[in-house]
# Entry
Amino acid sequence: MAAWLPALLTTILLGCVEEVEIETDDESIQQARNALVVEATLTDEERTQEVVLSRAADFENDSIVDFDIEDPSTYIIPDLDPETRPILYESGATVAVTDDSGATYPFVEGDPGRYFSQAPFAAQPGRSYQLRITLRGGQRIVSELETLAGSASLDGLRAERASDPLQGEGIRFLVDGTSNGGSDAFFRYTFEETFRVVAPLWSPQEFVLSNYDPCADPVEYTLEIVNRTEENQVCYRTEASAAIVQASTAGLTGGRLRNFPVHFLSRETYKIAERYSIRVRQLVESRGAYSYYDRLRNFSQEGNVFAQVQPGFLQGNLQPEGEASLLVIGYFSVASVSEERIFLDYEDFFPGEPEPPFLVPCSLLSSPEAHPTYCPAVPVLGGSGGGCPLSVIELLDLGGLISYYSDNNETVVTSCAGPHVYVPRVCGDCTVLGSNQVPDFWIE
Amino acid sequence: MSETFCSGPTSQTYRRLFLFLAICILTSTHIRAQQPPDTLRIDFAFTGMKPVDALKELSRQQQLTIFYVDEWLPDAPLSRSYREATLEEILDDLLAGTELNYFRYDSQTIVLTRNSRIYDELPDGFFGKPVARTPENDQPVRPPAPLPIFVNEESLPGEMQVETIRIGRQSTGQAGETFTLEGYVRERESGMPVPDVAILITNRGRGMATDASGYYRLELPPGVQELRTRFIGMEPIRKQVILYNSGQLDLLVEEAVEQLDEVVVEADADRNVEAVTAGTDRIDSEESKDIPLVLGERNLLEVAASLPGISKAGEGATGLNVRGGRTDQNQFLLNHALVYNPTHFFGIFQALNPFVTESVDIYKGSIPVEFGGRLSAVFDIRTVDGDTLDLRGEGSVGPVTANLAFEIPVNKGRSSLVLGGRGAYSDWILRSVGEERLSGTEASFYDFIATYTDRINSRNQLKATAYYSKDRFSITRDSLVGYSNRAASVAWNHTFDERNLATFTLANSRYAFDIGFDGEANTDFDLGYSVEETELRAWNRFRMSDRHQLTYGLAAKYYRVNPGSRSPAGPDSDVERTSIPREQALEGGLFLSDRFTVSDRLELEAGVRYSFFGALGPSRQREYPEDQPRNPGTATDTLSFGSGEFVKTYGGPEIRASARYLLAPDLSLRAGYSNMYQYIHTLTNTTTVSPIDTWKLSDYNIRPQKSRQVSLGVFKNINDAEIEVSLEGYYKWSEDVLDFKTGARLLLNEEVETEVVQGDGQAYGLEFLIRRNRGRLNGWLGYTYSRTRVRFDSPYPSEQINEGEFFPANFDRPHDLSLVANYRFTRRYSLSMNFSYQTGRPVTYPVGQYYFNNSEYVLYSDRNKFRIPDYIRLDLGINIEGNHRKEKLAHSFWTISVYNVLGRSNPYSVYFVSEGGEVKALQSSIFAIPIPSITYNFKF
# Structure
């Protein structure tokens, strides 16, 4: 077979895909800046309800933060925390929910862009609700009238050992959902995972850097190694689900959804290395909300080379009042919620089998404690580091990227080795990943 | 309409009797062998006789039967004396200076012909009793016109000038040598051989009638031959043939004003390319073989896309866009049977066997009345009639497929079976490649066609066709997609008499696809979809008079759609069995058109088709209030319809009108107006069409699409039709074209009307074509400037696209330039090229990104605001013919071609993915590198 043929078929079947610059123009930038994102799901739970307002980011103002350090894999801590994301929250808005009885439930801004109801309240069956937002500039946005679309029970959240063609072996979480009304129920599942994280290369001591002046010659600093004062070996990390998981009982007998997989955890994930808990919330939403999320999910899936889903602006149920160039993203949904939590241990599912690896590869590292001055009187040709990694004091100064492990008693032998052995901070300090407080709901 | 087929005795009996007899004269002797030169020498003398009387005397003396009209001959008395002269010499002399020719059938029968009007008027008493005069044959005989001889000729569009055909290669023959010109005459529409057509060589006084198989053979001296055909009920053909050597000339005769005479001269004559009339194009399968194409696969549809007004969304986009129409607005008819998707593998290959395909007629302007149901274009694909005498075969071996076709005589001289098969061996290649990225992918396709043509007798011909094509591919690891086309038809042509040619067709077509999903453990499913239609059509062409030719008939179609079912695949699947109820509908058309020759210069074709559609129960349809957006929550009622009950009917008259005015013999203007209805639509939510788009019938909530088109064009032939130039403009309005709410779910959606929006469109364009038909260098240059914009407006934002403003359609590509050229170095070697440039397709870009529900999403705004980069591609090919030695068993040729010589990666789509928290724009191209291929073709 001619040599070009495989290449040719690859070309035909897979196409040639290359990255290109994203074109943008002033109008698009303007459009993006004028897009308001509304996250508002009113539930039938008696609690403080929440509405989050933010703005879309245009590509000119791409706010993705990245670290430019020589070997990012060693130091980077996955930025999984929504609070630290560079979201352009919309502050100073007036938010209220009204119902068809004339009642108004005002919201107040807590954190920037996050608005909480002044008093706890629950959506009532049969009542219509409307979300009303007035932005700082006076622009008003109202939603359509929404009601609770029935209720359902969440039965039997359970986990089973399973395998997935893409993720391999792991644990699958299944639910059953039963519609309480006669009509079709549309479910959206969100979940929250909480798991114990144990820093794999924890040490009872830590570095403390003070009096650091990199410009002094020689560099001035005080580096102490002290006993840790707070718990940072065992923590608890909580992650909210990001995926859109939906199901409906439409077309199912008895309005009962069975064995629906809400989540799959690869056995390779560090999340299940220790004890793991998942709380699944089942939201019964209107068909409109179901359809909105369904489309949103459909867009974010990659099609194949031949069939690209036609994208476009997804119109939800929120509209600016009057002639406005504002695009409103999101769907004001009123949902009946039921939830369930389970706990599990890795050993229960994979007894005697190797534990999953930690989030990042953790290894013992060493580098010189200090570095030559940044401001030499006579310029030094060819740099000052001698090709070694950043020094301990620089790494600490950059925001505590490392954790102390031990003194270097020939533990790490390299040409750059210094007096200390350290580890990426995430390997020695679990508070990078989670909280050192045991959650209230935690059951051992 | 009750006498649709005029089979009973009518007041036209006499006329028909006359015609019948006229034909009988021609058929009385089937001259198949060459006519030996009449060597009989005779003596003949007269004095002071009128030529008429002289002829009478000659026929009396020589016991000849001579047919002529008294008025044709001059009145001036003559005196002549011939000694030992041949009859020809006498006649030549007698008729010198008149515009009369004669036509010798056998030794005792001679027909005098006057250039254009021969068999419609014969002397009174010719039949032994007076012929009843009717308005048609009561026209005054026109006064003799001066030379040139081509006077009083019915001008056809495209026949503004006589085409010149060169047959054979000049040889140093001796003076007086004669050559043989032979060939077949067939009816273009049906491909039926036409017997009894008079083939006249007007400048030589030779003539001949075709035999039962349409065959003729003439012995002619070398040089210029003015060839004409005469057959009542058929358009005359006029050709100038320059005979250098013996050769074959096949003629296609026809009737409709939209169509043209075509000449295919085989093997040893220069290739001819037919002219183009307004809104009509024709592609010959044979012609397309020289155009370099991807992977050496002949692709008529790709050639079609190089003509003005026809474009593709890109490589890998199934379907063609004709004059701003969506891809679902085209009708691909294979011997009258609809083929829903005539392509393989995402439109890269055609699903038609190139050796079995004779030609494609493309109607994009004024569509003839006998067609209906699609707004933009009809692609009328015809297969060859098999050879009824000898077994023939043709095949090719290319890098992707192998093709084979046979023509098998069944009943010698009468019927023939054509078998064609084609398959891709890519699966085998894929397996042997072992490339990691290709594991789990699969792609294969094949198609098969069988046609049986039986010329039962001179009045009846039957053609039966069966066709099947199948594709299977798997691009993602967990799904396998297959689709198939099935088409079958029976066409019966019946000649009631020479003025009534009726065609009956019965056709059945089915398109189906299935998706097998074998993914996560309990969600495996099989999804199936199919659409099937059965159509009966009957129409008659009635040549009422020289000035009027009527076409009338009816069509009835029954649709059945299985919109989809999903069933669990495997015992572990928890997928519920779902099935969307079947849909059925009737579509009908009653049509009548008149081709009216107003004058020599002006010709009209005016037709009307009453189009009707009824969606049939059993069905449940939802009712939505007018004052609310249509979504599943706003349905107010569900209506139930019983089996066979009309759910909703639509319909209306469709006007199909066109006119041609000759400004000069080689310059004409054409104008057309038409409006159309379409009741079946594809549902697609992807930017380009894909094979798993479903077809949806109009129903209670989904209205038919409608369009109106006006066009005006000017056509000019230069240098004896060597070069044809045309410029044509159109403007098209569409109503109720379909699109979908952003992110619509279309498969297995019972309430699909809630995802559909219907809007209007505007398209306009100017199409320029210059084409050289002869010479070493031939080909064409086409350029189109066109715009297509659509608007989806509604009081409800959820039913608007781009705030209800007009925006460019996905296939709006303003500039479209194609250059197809073929240069023949020698008889064996030729070089061909194909260059194409198109403005990039509109695309929807994201304008930003946002966080929602703990995840990052891309914000898209106005649809189709940006464009992907322009498309530029050059292909080159070399064709090497095998040598032409006659004793060789098989004739062969090689095609070596390079697709996309420039190696430009023409983007097919641009899409956006979120990777590592960052949005990336990815551009995909299907053929981003030059792709060489070599194909071996053989013929025996």
User: Anything to note?
Assistant: Chain A has seven helices and 25 strands.
